[in-house]
Design brief:
Elements (H helix, E strand, L loop, with lengths): L11 E3 L9 H16 L27 H18 L6 E5 L4 H13 L3 E9 L16 E8 L6 H4 L3 H17 L6 H20 L9 H12 L5 H8 L23
Parallel strand pairs: 1-2
Antiparallel strand pairs: 2-4, 3-4
Length: 261
Amino acid sequence: MTRFLPTRPILVTYNPPYFGNVQYAELMDFCYAWLRRLVSTESDGFDRESTRSPEELTGNTTQLRGIDHFTDGLSRVYARVAQALKPGAPLAFTFHHNKIEAYGAVAVAILDAGLTCTATIPCPAEMGGSIHIHGTGSSIVDTVFVCRVHGHVRRRQLCETSAALTQLVSDELAQLRSADMQPSPGDIRCIVFGHLTRIAIWRLRGSWDSTRRTSERLERVATAAAALGDPQLIIDSLSTPVRRTRVPAQLPHRRRGALSP
């Protein structure tokens, strides 16, 4: 990606891999086997037998690619983006995952790049029937991360207590419900994890040391994110079903003395 960035773009939008959720190369091999026969092995990019690579930026247990590999690769990408961005221009990307540890990699990458996160915005993204998330309890809501070298955050968004974070997420859930969406516990988890990541980045930005070992940087983020307590308690408190009050239909107005048809 970073090889094709123009000089000083005013905005970079990006959809990073979701750590180990989707094995892109393994899925692509189903198509690649047929495409390779059609275009011949002499065509550019089709000389190898598989699209898989040890450098693929995903977590993969069988390939021994863990959270450190994912973190380091994401950091390199974000550092290149930060260098190319026009001053004041944002990097915006979407992310969701079932585990807070995956968000730690995102936070480390943002901090390593010298960026800060100025907003985390919940946004409907997936269809519940998507094959890779069906039956997993995963979110169909992504968090949109907005990052800049310098930025301002509204005081209410800083959430010094778990109660403040709970209220912030509750307000966002109300907005989603007003759009006729029913957020699931997985959606709520994604929203909470996104905000915790942003808050951790904000608290660590002034003392961040990108030269420390990857495991140490991940641990610093995890500690900062845990400062507001157990996120599962917040998720559980917000996952109680909301009862909708049914409004009775209005009867047609009948003029006094009028007869029904």
